[in-house]
C-alpha cells in the first residue's frame, strides 16, 4: 500500500495564506483594476465637501473671529436654561452653548460675540443667581464662572497666520516631493494631498465641527502623515518598476499594483497604531477630563489618519498609473506584454543550438520577444555503450 503525499509547495502555500499573497502578488487585491471606482468615490466626496464648504462654511472658534467664552462647572444644568438666562441678561443670543467632558470634569461653555466688561458682569451675576455654581472649594461663588475674550483684530491675525502656515506647508511639501520622486509621482502625490485637505475640511463643514488653532495644527500633522504614507508606497512602486521596459512579464500597472499589495498591510498597521493613541487621548483628555483643546487636536488627527490612508492606497497610485499610461513608452510596453500573452509573439528558445564549429550555443534572452518561431527540441532515449555500466546486474542478464 502506497502512501500519497501532497507536494510540499501546496502545503506551504496553504500555510502562507492570503496575507502572504498580498506581498507576492499571487491572489492579491487588484487595486488598479478598480481605478474608476476610486475616482467615482473621490469625485463624490469632493463635490459634497466643496458644496458644504461653500454653503455652510466653517464654525470658527473665537480665536479666529473674536468673541467671548464663558465657562463654569456643568453639574446638572440645562444648556437651554443657561442660554435663556444669558440672553435675558445681555440681550445677545450666544452662538453655541455646550457641555464638554464627563463626570466631575464636565464644563458648560457659552460662546458669543465679543462682550464688553459690563455685559460680561451682567451675565456672570445672572447665571450665578439662577444656578449657584460651585467653585473649586465646593462653595457657591461668582468666581466659578470664568470668561475669556478675544478681539476681532487678534482673530484676524491668527487667521492670516493659519493661512500662511498652510501655504508654506504646501510649498515645502511640493518642493520635497519634486526632488524625492519622479515627475508623475510628484503630481499624483500633490493631487492626493489636495484631496485630503478638501475632504477633511468638508467633513468639518458637514458636521459643523468647530475650527480652532489646535485643529489647524492637527491638520498639518495629518497631511504630513499622508505624504509620508504616499512616499512609502511610491518608493515600492519605483523599486518594482525600475527597468520595467526590459521585461515582458508584467505591465507598469501590474507592477504598481504589486507594490500597493506589498505595502497595504503596512499602511493598515500604521493607521491602527496611529489611531489607538488618538482614541485614548479623546477618551481620557476629552471625555474624562474635558480639555476642549485636546478634543480639537485629537478629532482632526483621527479623521485625517483615516483619510490619509485612503488617499495613499486607493487614490495616489491609481493616479500615478493613469499618468504613466499616457506616456508613449508605457503604452508600447503594455501593448507588447498583451501581444505576448495572446500568443501573437513568442520568446526566444533557451535550448542549446548547434553552431558551425560544432559547439553548443545557448540563447539566454528568454524574456525577449522575436518574430521567428522557437526552435524545436528533440528528446531521445540515452544510449549506453556498456550494458553493465548502470543499473543492477543479475545472472543470465546480457
Structure description:
This protein is an alpha+beta fold. The chain folds into two domains: 29-59 and 154-332, Multidrug efflux transporter AcrB transmembrane fold (Up-down Bundle), CATH 1.20.1640.10; 67-149, ACT domain (Alpha-Beta Plaits, 2-Layer Sandwich). Helices cover 59% and strands 9% of the residues. It contains eleven helices and ten strands. The longest helix is centred in the C-terminal third of the chain and has 37 residues, at 252-288.
Task: Reconstruct the topology from this structure.
Blueprint: H1 8-24, H2 35-55, E1 59-60, H3 62-65, E2 67-73, H4 79-90, E3 96-100, E4 107-112, H5 117-131, E5 146-150, H6 152-180, H7 183-207, E6 210-211, H8 213-241, H9 252-288, H10 292-324, H11 328-341, E7 346-347, E8 352-354, E9 360-362, E10 369-370
Parallel strand pairs: 1-6
Antiparallel strand pairs: 2-4, 2-5, 3-4, 7-10, 8-9
Helix pairs in contact: 1-9, 2-7, 2-10, 4-5, 6-7, 6-8, 7-8, 7-10, 8-9, 8-10, 9-10
Amino acid at each position: 500500500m502506497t502512501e500519497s503525499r501532497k507536494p510540499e509547495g501546496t502545503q506551504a502555500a496553504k500555510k502562507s495564506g492570503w496575507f502572504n499573497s498580498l506581498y507576492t502578488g499571487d491572489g492579491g487585491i487588484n487595486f488598479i483594476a478598480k481605478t474608476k471606482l476610486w475616482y467615482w468615490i473621490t469625485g463624490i466626496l469632493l463635490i459634497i465637501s466643496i458644496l458644504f464648504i461653500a454653503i455652510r462654511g466653517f464654525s470658527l472658534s473665537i480665536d479666529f473671529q473674536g468673541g467671548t467664552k464663558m465657562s463654569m462647572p456643568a453639574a446638572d444644568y440645562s444648556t437651554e436654561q443657561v442660554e435663556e438666562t444669558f440672553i435675558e441678561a445681555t440681550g445677545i443670543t450666544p452662538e453655541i452653548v455646550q457641555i464638554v467632558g464627563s463626570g466631575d470634569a464636565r464644563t458648560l461653555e457659552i460662546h458669543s460675540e465679543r462682550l464688553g466688561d459690563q455685559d460680561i458682569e451682567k451675565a456672570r451675576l445672572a447665571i450665578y443667581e439662577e444656578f449657584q455654581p460651585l467653585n473649586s472649594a465646593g462653595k457657591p461663588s461668582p468666581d466659578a464662572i470664568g470668561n475669556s475674550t478675544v478681539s476681532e483684530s487678534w482673530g484676524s491675525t491668527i487667521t492670516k497666520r493659519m493661512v500662511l502656515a498652510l501655504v508654506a506647508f504646501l510649498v515645502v511639501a511640493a518642493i520635497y516631493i519634486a526632488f524625492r520622486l519622479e515627475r508623475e509621482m510628484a503630481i499624483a502625490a500633490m493631487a492626493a494631498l489636495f484631496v485630503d485637505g478638501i475632504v477633511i475640511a468638508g467633513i468639518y463643514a458637514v458636521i459643523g465641527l468647530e475650527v480652532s488653532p489646535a485643529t489647524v495644527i492637527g491638520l498639518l500633522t495629518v497631511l504630513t502623515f499622508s505624504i509620508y504614507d504616499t512616499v512609502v508606497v511610491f518608493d515600492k512602486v519605483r523599486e518594482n518598476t525600475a527597468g520595467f521596459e526590459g521585461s515582458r512579464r508584467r505591465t507598469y500597472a501590474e507592477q504598481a499594483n504589486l507594490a500597493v499589495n506589498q505595502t497595504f498591510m503596512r499602511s493598515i498597521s500604521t493607521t491602527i497604531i496611529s489611531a489607538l493613541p488618538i482614541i485614548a487621548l479623546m477618551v481620557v483628555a476629552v471625555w474624562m477630563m474635558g480639555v476642549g483643546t485636546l478634543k480639537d487636536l485629537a478629532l482632526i488627527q483621527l479623521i485625517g489618519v483615516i483619510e490619509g490612508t485612503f488617499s495613499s492606497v486607493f487614490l495616489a497610485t491609481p493616479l500615478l498609473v493613469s499618468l504613466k499610461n499616457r506616456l508613449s513608452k508605457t503604452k508600447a510596453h503594455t501593448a507588447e506584454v498583451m501581444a505576448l500573452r495572446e500568443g501573437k509573439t513568442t520568446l526566444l528558445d533557451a535550448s542549446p543550438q548547434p553552431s558551425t564549429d560544432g559547439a553548443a550555443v545557448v540563447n539566454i534572452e528568454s524574456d525577449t520577444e522575436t518574430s521567428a518561431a522557437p526552435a524545436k527540441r528533440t528528446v531521445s532515449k540515452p544510449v549506453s555503450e556498456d550494458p553493465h555500466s548502470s543499473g543492477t546486474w543479475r545472472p543470465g542478464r546480457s
